[in-house]
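Structure first, sequence second, as always.
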């Protein structure tokens, strides 16, 4: 049964990142093979030699990936520029969205109550925010008002409108 499913459906292919070039993918695979050799080796001398080789390959992979990302962003920016020149806004917005990335969006922030426990229900979160801002913004007047003396001398400051002569 399992073989029939694998034959008919196959395995789900991982979606490769579109900005990484084939050259970088081959370097990543070479680095993976070196890492496997490193983990399989037993002698410390061999491990030192292979780890040095791995560090060198890792630097090359990272350098190649940075170059690919730079080329990808430049290509997207140029495509957006050309599309904007043609007044075609759809590719502009699509490329801007790709360039922007949605990495650190906080859709559901964690809220704590007065005790420090997390509040999970949306209505309770709204109530907690209401209490928080009532405490922060609705403070009583200070017991002693600040005593600010009047200015002794009037300074010679021109308060007229600014204009170019």
């Amino acid at each position: 049964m399992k073989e029939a499913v694998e034959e008919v459906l196959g395995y789900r292919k991982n979606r490769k990142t579109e900005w990484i070039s084939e050259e970088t993918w081959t370097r990543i695979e070479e680095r993976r093979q070196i890492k496997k050799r490193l983990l399989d080796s037993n002698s410390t001398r061999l491990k030192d030699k292979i780890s040095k080789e791995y560090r060198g390959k890792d630097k090359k992979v990272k350098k190649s990936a940075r170059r690919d990302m730079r080329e990808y962003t430049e290509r997207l920016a140029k495509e957006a520029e050309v599309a904007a020149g043609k007044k075609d806004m759809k590719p502009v917005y699509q490329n801007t969205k790709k360039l922007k990335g949605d990495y650190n969006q906080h859709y559901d922030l964690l809220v704590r109550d007065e005790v420090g426990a997390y509040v999970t229900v949306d209505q309770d979160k709204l109530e907690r925010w209401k209490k928080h801002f009532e405490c922060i913004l609705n403070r009583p007047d200070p017991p002693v008002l600040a005593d600010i003396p009047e200015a002794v001398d009037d300074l010679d400051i021109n308060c007229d409108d600014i204009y170019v002569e």
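Margin note: The first helix runs from residue 2 to 9.
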